[in-house]
Amino acid sequence: MQVDFSEVxxxxxxxxxxxxxxxxRNSELAEDVVQTAFLKAILNVDNFQGSSSIYSWxxxxxxxxxxxxxxKPDGKNESLDKLVSDGIENIAVTDQDPIEDIIQSEERAExxxxxxxxxxxxxxxxxxxxxxxxxKEIGEKLNKSENWAKVNYHRTIEKLKSxx
Length: 164
Prior knowledge:
Layout: H1 5-24, H2 27-43, H3 54-71, H4 75-86, H5 98-116, H6 120-130, H7 135-141, H8 146-162
Helix pairs in contact: 1-2, 1-3, 2-3, 3-5, 6-8, 7-8
């Protein structure tokens, strides 16, 4: 399949960056993930079957890159080393306890790990919902009804809750 990635990048890079940033809350990591995702997409364009939009395909690649980053055993240490080398002034000041930040980060990583174990249909529904799409829009994107999207989303959430 022939894809003009310069146009795809112009059209979707910012949207993808915002989506990935919403997941990790780290601008450098989000930039790296987006760049890596587009590189992987370019290198693997022959694997794109066209059964979903190009944006959905690249988003899936980007999420897999992000999950892989979170699963690296030394990933947190690299981030901490970077904060220390950049200086204390770059650390965001929040009212939240740093331990709470760590717990939330680990919970987020666990959630994305569970999402990654879902079947493709369920992953698509959850990812589209996390992008802020309504059930009606999800149904339209997946050529299904709004009610189908609601029912399957709620079943998927129940499945996520039951996973260990």
